[in-house]
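Re: How this chain folds, sequence and tokenised backbone to follow
How to read it: Take the token row as a discrete description of the fold.
Start of record: The labelled sequence and token lines come straight after this line.
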Amino acid sequence: MDRAWVYLVTGCGFIGEKIVELLSQQDYIKEVRVFDSVAKEEVEKFTTGTENVLRACCVLNVPYVVYTSSVAAVGPNTSHEPMLRGNEDTKYSGEVELPYGKTKAMAEKLVFEANGKKMSNGGKLTTCIIRANAVYGEKATYLQELYLFAKARNSVLNYLEPENTERNYTYVGNVAWMHVLVARNLQLKPDLLAGQVYYSYDDTPTRKGFLIRHQLLSTMDPSVRLGSHIPYWKMWLMIQLHRMIKVILYPFWKPQPFLNLPLLNTIVTTFSYETDKASRHFGYKPLFTWEESKHRTAQWLKAVAGNLDTPQLHEKKN
């Protein structure tokens, strides 16, 4: 395939920005364009963005679509059943609980159905899906907030997950690199990649989220130390008390957003996978090692630490 390609990235957030960065380094790409929807009147009337993108591709004869989904589109379900080291072929039934997961599942269905759809020039649309998981790296705002939270508590980082809970973590650069490779190979090997779904992964050394978070923060600030597990019942009680106070005092007091029960249940439920499908299908290997990923994340955190609110102010706000 010797012609130069124009790539469009819809959405330039945490992952999208890294995708644009890596795409711009590829010599087979003629141009990288970005469309990042904001809250404007002309776009608010569109209720399903993915549907509009797919429709536009068919009308304008854009032959390839890679959709960025999430493991949240699969589970955990409303019964909080675990998935332990499954893969893309693992059967897992039930409806997901979190709104984010529900919308991702709906979008995935649209993308699957659009694969092979006829375009206006008579060609066929080719689609596939990447399911990202818990992603860390530069500009991961949750790491900033977590650091402030720890510093406000004498640099102690407590955690909600039971120690036997597993969840995959992947560096943002490797998630973006997988997108670059999928997009290229969707053109080169459409019969193999069309209609497929791929979980993102790299060599991040553990599936225990609290250990990953501690390693990232302590690399940036060695004073941050791992604390203890917060029992489920204690957090459940705090959530219920927060809800009661909010109802009683509304509208005189509008508290900051707080952890809700569906999110708590998701955090404490094992949902992990183990796969090499991306390697087998299109030769994926992580572009960044764990050490590089950790170093890049820590350097970014150091750079922004001086601009963060002091822990005391942050604690008062919350």
Observations:
- The longest strand covers residues 29-35.
- Residues 5-317 form a domain with the Rossmann fold fold (CATH 3.40.50.720).
- Residues 31 and 168 are 33 Å apart (CA to CA).
- The chain has one domain: 5-317.
